[in-house]
């Protein structure tokens, strides 16, 4: 799995003194950047080849400001035109959240999904995890 470490920032906490539930979606997206670069190494937003179709987050334990968090990212499903990204949030050695995001290879000019390129598929397969 890919790994992305970060410090919890004060503004990411809520009145209950833990990380707000809205923050994890942003963390997961930031940790998916290496996957985006598999599709478009230059991160060319004028020729962006993917679209987010769905995401789900399961909260397993509270996350607090202070200790570093680690986002782990892998691929849990690989289809013809899409893939499912499986992600975890760890803090102090504890699994605190899991997320699944479906990314679709997409042609914005034609407004339709297209098959994953073979070279990208191969790179995604290298990140396979059982989830």
TrEMBL record:
It holds the Pfam family 4HBT_2. This is Acyl-CoA thioesterase. It comes from the Bacteria. One of its GO terms (molecular function) is fatty acyl-CoA hydrolase activity. CDD domains: 4HBT. InterPro entries: 4-hydroxybenzoyl-CoA_TE, HotDog_dom_sf. It comes from Neptunicella marina. Belongs to the 4-hydroxybenzoyl-CoA thioesterase family. Coiled coil: none annotated. Keywords: Hydrolase. The keyword Transport does not apply.
